[in-house]
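Example 3.2
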Amino acid sequence: MSQRVLPGSTPPGVFVGRFGWPKVRIGPLVTPERGDTLLYDSPELWVGRPLEEIVGFRTSLVRGTFRTHVDDANNPGRLLEDLQLLSLSTRSTEAEATFSRAPRFHLTLSDEVPPYGPTAPLEKFNLEEVKVDQRMEKESSDIHATATTAVVELYNQSLPVSRIERAFSAGTLGRKGHRRFVPTRWSITAVDDILSKSNLGRVRHLPEFSEWWLYKLTALGNRWFILIMPGYWRYESIEAWFPGTLWNPVGSDAMMIGDWEGHDGRTTYAGMGGCYYAARLAVSEHLERIQRQAGVVILRETHPGQVMPLGVWNVREHVRTTLQGNPERLGSVEEVHEKVKEFLAIPLPRWLQQSHWLAEWKVQKRLEEF
């Protein structure tokens, strides 16, 4: 775009960068489209839409930025205060952004964050009336509750995870004097981690599952194979990126990465990043829904049809969607192996070599099998 002044609307959208932390770049996401643009920053509404449409409305979002210290969330000036108010909004809002130069398009690719469009330094930002969600306003006004407590309470009131992440990132939650602006990509994983741990605190006390259930889905160049296993809570997520995909553009073989945890959870950060925690949140929700604890293994193949990373929403929302389907009920781990061969392109021995929990089932029988 060539102009320095952009009238339009914000979905609402606020983005916090991570480079230079603790001094970070923060600003609104504004589109020249007017009216209801809530869809543009609501990942929960993107499942089933074609890649081209998602990329299209995401890249129409122009990001204005200015530098601030993360601690300024506690004593914001007018512009920061407007951004914090925007993060609590329940709907899109008319807005006008003025930049110091015409925004330039620079595509930033990330596993955690959806793409966005051109970027430029922000000089001025004008908002029309913002309709604040009363539930979020109440949590934001509570200066004695920790950010973790506020995140869980908002989730328990059925707020979309993406809206909770936005408020968390904008430093509107937490105890007085302890609020911080959190880079968007960090806030996404932090909220997924907080919420899944909260859910699993209850799941671990549920009766153990006694069957093998298999859920499958193909979407956006991905094949999802999700196995619910008998027994206690344990979890594993494995991804395979085929040659010709973004994270394996020139390889000659599929690149695989995975992480796992046992009944008591992890003590270190998962090497595969935010996707691990996004899927774990979706899985914990499912186990609460069926009122059982169980083992869960997620196998994901990404084929050349997905040419761009879309952010961890892609994982969270597609695992949620997969688990809303009707499961195939299997009788044994041998049947599971046959289903792997039928649905996934990577040979079974490679999955077993990569996997912790599937491999363990090959050599360890449960007590009730004897």
